[in-house]
Amino acid sequence: MSDDNPPSGNHKKTSWAMRLLQNFTAEPNTREELVDMIQDAESRDLIDIDTKEMIEGVLDVAELKVRDIMIPRSQMVTIDKNQSVEEFLPIVIETQHSRYPVVSENKDHIEGILLAKDLLAYGFKMIEEPFLLEKVMRPAVIVPESKRVDALLKEFRSKRYHMAIVVDEYGGVSGLVTIEDVLEEIVGEIEDETDEDEVRANIRRVSATRCMVKALTPIEDFNEFFHTEFSDEEIDTIGGMVAQAFGHVPEIGESVEIGQFQFKVTAADRRRIQQLQVTELAKAENAPH
Question: Which stretches of 203-265 are DSSP H helices?
């Protein structure tokens, strides 16, 4: 068999990238033409659907700004620098994030970043000295809303940090962004071994008329679960909506009625609501006594 006619098996071993390049008989002139060519390659089994979606994700990231993917200010879980470890540890345990912005006064005053893993040495008494937040928190990285996401990913990699605080044109904090947020735009949702269905994790029914609801539950998820139509245009979370109804940060045991629901605070600290007991009033009135 001559070299001009290689065995067909060798062709099958050609990488998807090489086959994709071979498929580009004409150079695309626009992004739309490139996307069409990638979709055509997938339809002809030159690449699989996961590869196609990843390539499209890379193309999308190149057009995104940080404001498009950031976690908004209202959903940021922060720790007050004046809190004791006993005060903020329940927040760390409940939310299970790996990093927390440390603030003073409010979210516009970011003092640094606390890594949850830095608490382990104190928890296991590997360090005998008293815990001081100022000693363990890391410097906060600040990026503008307008920064391109592909440039941010390059910065994440080169400078080896995983979270950045996002500020608007006036210097106010508008949210935060993590390297995971960027990667999920490319490869899709990244789940770890502790992830659960978010609605199920945030809303737990305890009786026919009552549910326990985490304050960070998005209003959209609450509406889906209870078939309601609360607006999320100005406020994103159910805790924020309830706090607005109170007009102040409520204490444990306080309750308020909104629509056909009674919201009773079952967990809170001096800065925020953490958990609510939600009673469906219409069902409660009709329930047998």
Answer: 219-226, 238-246
**CA 188, CA 182: separation in Å to the nearest integer?**
10
Question: For the chain, give me the number of helices (H) and strands (E)?
Answer: 14, 12
Nearest to 274 by CA among 238, 248, 244, 246: 238
Alpha helices in the chain, H assignment, sequence order: 8-12, 16-23, 31-43, 49-61, 66-69, 85-95, 120-123, 133-136, 149-159, 179-187, 198-202, 219-226, 238-246, 281-286
Helical axes 149-159 vs 179-187, angle rounded to 10°: 120
Q: φ, ψ for residue 257 (rounded to 5)?
A: -105, 130
Dist CA 65 CA 155 (whole Å): 14
Task: Say if residues 267 and 274 touch (Cβ distance below 8 Å).
Answer: yes
In CATH terms, the superfamily for domain 67-187 is CBS-domain (3.10.580.10)
First to last CA, the chain: 89
Q: What is the pLDDT of residues 232-286, one digit of tens each?
A: 888 889 999 999 999 888 888 899 999 999 999 988 866 778 889 999 988 766 6
Decide if 251 contacts 268 (C-beta within 8 A): yes
User: What is the CATH topology of the domain spanning 198-286?
Assistant: 3.30.465
**Cα 236–Cα 237–Cα 240 angle in degrees, nearest 5:** 100
Phi, psi of 235 (to 5 degrees): -125, 135
Tell me, what's the pLDDT at 286?
64
Residues 256 and 77: their CA atoms lie apart, in Å, by 24
Map out the domains of the chain as residue ranges. 8-63, 67-187, 198-286
